[in-house]
Write a structure and sequence with these properties.
Layout: H1 2-7, H2 13-34, H3 38-55, H4 60-93, H5 96-107, H6 113-128, H7 131-149, H8 153-170, H9 175-184, H10 188-216, H11 219-222, H12 225-238, H13 247-257, H14 262-279, H15 285-294, H16 306-309, H17 311-317, H18 326-343, H19 347-356, H20 362-380, H21 383-400, H22 405-417, H23 427-436, H24 440-443, H25 449-463, H26 477-485
Helix pairs in contact: 2-3, 2-19, 3-18, 4-14, 4-15, 4-18, 5-7, 5-12, 6-7, 6-8, 6-10, 7-8, 7-17, 7-23, 8-10, 9-21, 9-22, 10-22, 10-25, 13-14, 18-23, 19-20, 19-21, 20-21, 20-22, 20-25, 21-22, 22-25
Family: Belongs to the NhaC Na(+)/H(+) (TC 2.A.35) antiporter family.
Subcellular location: Cell membrane
Transmembrane segments: 12-34, 40-58, 78-105, 111-133, 140-166, 238-255, 262-283, 325-344, 365-385, 443-467
């Protein structure tokens, strides 16, 4: 056993970086350009990372054990992902999502649809602290309205993602908002206030862009009164809409606000939706269970000529079910397989150490943090790891160079929390694509808030505006002095 441990070597910077560069090239060329399967490409990258690990003395048992550890930590998120499919299926057959679509079509002005999508999901995510929940509930309803109106789905989906992650960055209920200051050594509410330097301008830009794009659309192409009236009439004919349809939404929002465990709350909400489907919509329990597993289908209505409803209604209503999330789960497993194979050798730590060794200037430190954090997102496909690992690696660098830790916590969120959902192979990226029905690459340009944070982070780093230094009286001042005396 001792000989096996002695033979294990930590890879050099080149061999640490090699599997990552290979993965980026495979996905960048194979997936984004040629259109090859991302899952297979991730497996190829995992094989290459495994060969590097074996060449440095690590065994197959070491690799598989690390992969299992990664997947074990990820299982709660994967379970939530599967239950979201269950939730959408039950909300559909129970009439909850049709109700939101129905009233959304009645009150939303087509010119303000994109801006409304952004603002509504922003408010929901700030109140609940959950980007996935906001996109999976309010976001799904808004996408239904967009489909019915014939609005550009990629733009609307981008606005939904922007709004969902506005709250994920700023809400004290958000796990990432709490995790970033823990990783960086700052305080929660000073971190939230400091986030406004980058998120505030991004919010304003989003409002301007989404308003301008909304008014640039030809009203005739965005919304046909006849088609909207047909959708309204069809929903009115198919579903019995009443106040009980909103109860499943209230349950999820209440659970999020009270920070209750996500899975029980979502399952309870789904249970109420199933009762609604049986009591008010006239479906059988068998049909409700079928919708929760396989998704809702228009054929479930008895005595209705489905063909007469048109393809728009099928696109609008046929969705959800646990099976609809299996593709998302598969790519998550492949991504974490690569992350586990890379982690066994400590390659990521080697790269981080090389990045921080010679960085001295303010813009160099913040720029290196952004680069390292985005790299971690690309490699691990996990936003939480991408906050914690760079936070640990850079915390002393910031303090030693006199930069307040809240600069680090802000930069971590600007380059991890919001970058994850616009990266196609991450769990957040595939979740948003699967939930909203728009490919990550398609909504990426319109998820404005998700990349303006990095832009403003570098602007403030270069100018020095909004990048406070450590002062006497700060908790980290003593550590700053000690680190500089040790040099």
């Amino acid at each position: 056993m001792e000989n096996k441990e002695i033979n294990k070597k930590k890879p050099t910077f080149f061999w640490s970086l090699f599997p990552i560069i290979t993965m980026i090239l495979l996905l960048g060329v194979g997936y984004a350009i040629i259109g090859l399967s991302a899952e297979v490409l991730m497996l190829v990258a995992s094989v290459i990372a495994g060969i590097v690990a074996l060449g440095h003395g690590y065994t197959w048992e070491d690799i598989i054990d690390t992969i299992v550890q990664k997947l074990t930590k990820t299982m709660p998120a994967i379970l939530v992902l599967i239950v979201v499919g269950f939730l959408i299926g039950t909300w559909m057959i129970g009439g909850t999502i049709p109700m939101m679509i129905y009233y959304g079509l009645k009150v939303i002005n087509p010119n303000f649809l994109i801006l409304t999508a952004f603002l509504v999901t922003s408010i929901t995510s700030v109140c609940t602290g959950t980007s996935w929940g906001s996109a999976g509930t309010v976001g799904v309803a808004i996408m239904g309205v967009a489909i019915a109106m014939g609005a550009p789905l990629a733009i609307v989906a981008g606005a939904v993602v922007s709004g969902a992650y506005f709250g994920d960055k700023l809400s004290p209920l958000s796990d990432t908002t709490n995790l970033a200051p823990i990783a960086a050594g700052s305080e929660l509410y000073e971190h939230i206030a400091h986030m406004l330097w980058t998120t505030g301008p991004g919010f304003i830009i989003c409002c301007i862009v989404y308003t301008a794009v909304g008014f640039s659309q030809d009203p005739g192409s965005v919304s046909s009164p006849e088609s909207v009236a047909l959708v309204l009439a069809s929903i009115d004919e198919l579903f019995r809409i009443n106040i009980f349809m909103i109860i499943p939404v209230i349950i999820v929002l209440y659970g999020s606000l009270r920070k209750k465990p996500a899975l029980p709350i979502m399952l309870f909400s789904s249970g109420i939706a199933i009762l609604n489907s049986v009591i008010f919509q006239g479906f059988t329990l068998q049909q409700s269970f079928d919708a929760s597993i396989n998704g809702f289908r228009l054929e479930m209505f008895s005595g209705v000529n489905v063909a007469s409803l048109g393809s728009d209604m099928a696109t609008l209503l046929q969705r959800g079910g646990m099976k609809s999330m299996l593709g998302t789960v598969l790519i998550a497993f492949c991504a974490y397989g690569f992350a586990g194979t890379l982690a066994v050798t400590g390659s990521l730590e080697t790269i981080m150490e090389s990045l921080t060794r010679k960085v001295k200037s303010r813009q160099g430190i913040i720029g290196s943090t952004i680069l390292a954090t985005i790299t971690t997102v690309f490699v691990t496909s996990n936003g939480q790891i991408s906050l914690l690992l760079p936070g640990e690696m850079f915390s002393k660098t910031y303090i030693k160079n006199g930069l307040h830790p809240k600069n680090l916590s802000r930069t971590l969120e600007d380059s991890a929390t919001v970058i994850e959902p616009i990266t196609p192979w991450t769990a957040a990226g595939v979740y948003m694509a699967g939930t909203l029905g728009v490919a990550t690459i398609q909504y990426l340009p319109w998820a404005v808030l998700n990349y303006t944070g990095v832009i403003f982070a570098m602007i403030w780093a270069i100018t020095g505006i909004g990048v406070p230094k450590i002062r006497k009286g700060d908790k980290c001042y003593a550590e700053h002095v000690i680190l500089n005396e040790a040099v």
